[in-house]
C-alpha cells in the first residue's frame, strides 16, 4: 500500500502546476509568498495536530476534519501535539511561535498559513482566525475535493506557500430577503456555506415584509397563520398581473435555532430584520389593531404586489408593547449584538390622516411625521439597548436624529445614478451626520451591491427577470468605501460592507445563486482586502479558478459572456 501511495505522490509532484499558477485565493490575502520546493502532499496518513487550542476550537476541527474525510473515509480527529510533527496539518495558537511578520497583523481574525513539504501550519490567535486559515487551505486544494461523492484519489498537493492575512473590515455581510419569497432552511445553509468559503461573516436575514411574515412568534400566532400567506404573487414576466396561486411559508423556532447554530459553527453572525414602522402590511393584516385603523379605507392585507405600501404601525402603547413582545422572542432566538428594524420607506400618509397619530404627536411635542418616525425608532432603540442589544436600521432612521447608540446601514450612496447608466462616484451625504456623531456605519450601496440588479445589460443578453438597473462584476469590484475628508477615527466608524439580495424577482434558490455569484466574490474581496491589494485583472484570473470550485459545489452562478436572445428563467 505504501509503494502505491508513493507512486501516486511522485506522479502528482511531476504533473502539478507551480505554486504561482496554483495560488488563486478569494478574497486576496495581505501576503502570499512562495516557499520553493514541491509543497505538501496530503494523504491517508496525514494527521491533524492542535497546539494550545482555545475552548471554541470545535468548528475549526470539524472544518479540517471534513477536508480530510475523502482521504480517510471518515472525519479526521485531531490530537494535541507540537509544531515539529511531520506529515501533519497543525493548528497552532501558541503566541510564542508567532513569526515577526504575523505579529504585525492585529485583527482577531488574522492567520498565517505556512506550507512546506513536511507539514502545514496554521498560526492564529482565535478560533475564528484559524477557521479563516482553513478556508484558505481549502482554496489551495484542488476543486475536485468539493465533489459529492468525493474522489477516491488518496493524495492531494498543496503548493509550498506562506499566506499572511487579516480583514480590513470587521463586518462583511450579505442579506437575503425572505419576506417576498420563502427559501428553505436547506437553501439558507447552503448560502451560509458559500459565505464561509469567501470569509463573509454576517448573514442579514430579512424576515418580515408587506408580502409576508416569515418568523414564528409564539405569543402572536396570527403573524404566521395569517401574515405568512398571500393570496397570490406577481406574475413572472408581467409584474402587473397576479398568478392566482396562494403563497407563503415561515421558519419555526426550532428551524431558526438550528440555522443560528449552523451559522455560528462557520463564524457567521445572523442579524435578523423585523421591519418597522413601515413595510408592515402582513403584520397589520394579522393584527389590525396595531395599525392606523382610524384612517379612511383601512383594509390591511398581506400584499400581493411589490412596491412601497401605505400601512405603518400606529404609535399606540399597545403597538409598542406588541413590538417589544416580538423583539423579546427575536432576541431569544438570535444571540448576536445587532437587531435590524428596517426603518426605511415608511410612508407618512396614514399618520397624517390618523386623528390618533396627530393627537399623539401633539402630546409628545412632535412637529412633523418625520419626527414621529424618529420618536418611534428611538423608543425601540431604548428597549433594545436596555436588553443589551444594538439597533441597526437603514439610513432613514437618522431622519429626525439617529437614536443614541444605534448603527446605520447606508444604502443611498449614489442617488444621481441612472439604472442602466455608468456608476458615479459614491455620494456620502447620508453618512456624514451619523459618522460625525459617532455612530457605526455599515455601507450597503444600492448602486454597487444590490444583487437583484442585472449583471449584464439585458438589452444585449437574455438575462433572467430582475428588478432593473445594471451592476456588472467590474462595477461591484470598483466600489470604494473610503470617504474623502474624514479623520482616521471617523473612517474607522465604517465597520462593514454589505450586499443585499432583494427577492421581488428571485423566486427560487438557483436564481439566488445566479444573482449572487460571482458578484458576492467581488463583495468579499472589497470588504476583506486592502485597496492596494485589489486588482481587477488579477481578481478575474483567480475567479476562473474559484468558479471551478463553484462548479463542483453545484452552484448556479452567472458565467462570463452574453447569453443568446432566448427565453431564460
What does this structure look like?
There is one protein chain. The protein folds into 2 domains: 164 residues, Chitobiase/beta-hexosaminidase domain 2-like (Chitobiase, domain 2, 2-Layer Sandwich); 382 residues, Glycosidases (TIM Barrel, Alpha-Beta Barrel). Helices cover 34% and strands 18% of the residues. The chain contains 20 helices and 23 strands. The protein has an 8-stranded parallel barrel, surrounded by 6 helices. Strands 1-9-6-7-5-3-4 form a 7-stranded mixed sheet. A hairpin with a 3-residue loop joins strand 6 and strand 7. It is globular, with a radius of gyration of 25 Å. The N terminus is likely disordered.
Helix content: 25-40%
Residue share in β-strands: 15-25%
**Name of the CATH class of the largest domain:** Alpha Beta
Which CATH architecture of the largest domain is right?
A: Alpha-Beta Barrel
Amino acid at each position: 500500500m505504501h509503494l502505491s501511495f508513493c507512486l501516486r505522490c511522485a506522479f502528482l509532484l511531476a504533473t502539478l502546476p507551480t505554486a504561482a499558477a496554483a495560488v488563486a485565493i478569494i478574497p486576496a490575502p495581505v501576503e502570499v509568498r512562495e516557499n520553493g520546493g514541491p509543497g505538501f502532499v496530503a494523504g491517508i496518513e496525514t494527521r491533524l495536530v492542535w497546539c494550545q487550542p482555545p475552548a471554541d476550537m470545535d468548528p475549526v476541527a470539524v472544518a479540517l476534519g471534513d477536508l480530510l474525510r475523502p482521504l480517510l473515509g471518515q472525519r479526521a480527529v485531531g490530537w494535541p501535539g507540537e509544531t515539529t510533527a511531520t506529515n501533519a496539518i497543525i493548528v497552532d495558537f501558541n503566541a510564542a511561535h508567532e513569526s515577526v511578520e504575523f505579529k504585525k497583523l492585529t485583527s482577531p481574525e488574522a492567520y498565517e498559513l505556512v506550507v512546506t513539504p513536511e507539514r502545514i501550519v496554521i498560526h492564529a490567535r482565535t478560533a475564528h482566525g484559524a477557521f479563516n486559515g482553513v478556508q484558505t487551505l481549502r482554496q489551495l486544494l484542488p476543486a475536485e475535493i468539493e465533489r459529492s461523492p468525493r474522489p477516491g484519489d488518496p493524495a492531494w498537493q498543496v503548493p509550498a506557500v506562506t499566506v499572511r492575512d487579516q480583514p480590513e473590515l470587521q463586518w462583511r455581510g450579505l442579506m437575503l430577503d425572505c419576506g417576498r419569497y420563502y427559501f428553505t432552511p436547506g437553501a439558507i445553509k447552503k448560502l451560509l456555506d458559500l459565505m464561509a468559503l469567501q470569509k463573509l461573516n454576517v448573514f442579514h436575514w430579512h424576515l418580515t415584509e408587506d408580502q409576508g411574515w416569515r418568523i414564528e412568534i409564539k405569543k402572536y400566532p396570527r403573524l404566521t397563520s395569517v401574515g405568512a400567506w398571500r393570496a397570490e404573487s406577481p406574475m413572472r414576466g408581467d409584474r402587473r398581473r397576479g398568478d392566482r396561486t396562494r403563497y407563503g411559508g415561515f421558519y419555526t423556532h426550532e428551524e431558526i435555532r438550528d440555522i443560528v447554530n449552523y451559522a455560528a459553527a462557520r463564524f457567521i453572525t445572523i442579524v435578523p430584520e423585523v421591519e418597522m414602522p413601515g413595510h408592515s402590511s402582513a403584520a397589520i393584516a394579522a393584527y389590525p389593531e396595531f395599525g392606523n385603523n382610524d384612517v379612511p379605507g383601512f383594509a390591511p392585507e398581506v400584499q400581493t404586489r411589490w412596491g412601497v405600501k401605505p400601512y405603518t404601525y400606529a404609535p399606540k402603547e399597545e403597538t409598542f408593547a406588541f413590538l417589544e413582545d416580538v423583539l423579546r422572542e427575536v432576541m431569544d432566538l438570535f444571540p448576536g449584538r445587532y437587531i435590524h428594524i428596517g426603518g426605511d420607506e415608511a410612508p407618512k400618509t396614514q399618520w397624517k390622516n390618523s386623528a390618533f397619530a396627530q393627537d399623539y404627536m401633539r402630546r409628545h411635542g412632535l412637529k412633523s411625521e418625520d419626527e414621529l418616525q424618529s420618536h418611534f425608532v428611538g423608543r425601540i432603540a431604548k428597549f433594545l439597548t436596555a436588553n443589551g442589544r444594538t439597533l441597526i436600521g437603514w439610513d432613514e432612521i437618522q431622519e429626525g436624529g439617529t437614536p443614541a447608540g444605534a448603527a446605520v446601514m447606508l444604502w443611498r450612496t449614489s442617488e444621481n445614478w441612472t439604472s442602466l447608466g455608468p456608476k458615479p462616484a459614491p455620494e456620502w451625504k447620508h453618512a456624514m451626520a451619523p459618522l460625525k456623531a459617532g455612530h457605526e456605519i455599515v455601507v450597503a450601496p444600492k448602486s454597487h451591491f444590490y444583487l437583484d440588479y442585472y449583471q449584464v445589460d439585458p438589452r444585449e443578453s437574455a438575462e433572467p427577470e430582475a428588478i432593473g438597473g445594471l451592476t456588472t462584476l467590474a462595477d461591484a469590484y470598483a466600489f470604494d468605501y473610503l470617504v474623502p475628508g474624514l479623520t482616521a477615527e471617523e473612517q474607522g466608524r465604517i465597520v462593514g460592507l454589505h450586499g443585499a439580495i432583494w427577492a421581488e424577482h428571485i423566486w427560487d434558490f438557483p436564481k439566488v445563486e445566479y444573482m449572487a455569484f460571482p458578484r458576492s466574490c467581488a463583495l468579499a474581496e472589497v470588504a476583506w482586502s486592502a485597496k492596494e491589494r485589489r486588482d481587477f485583472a488579477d481578481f478575474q484570473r483567480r475567479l476562473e479558478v474559484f468558479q471551478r470550485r463553484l462548479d463542483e459545489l453545484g452552484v448556479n452562478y452567472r458565467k462570463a459572456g452574453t447569453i443568446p436572445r432566448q427565453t431564460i428563467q
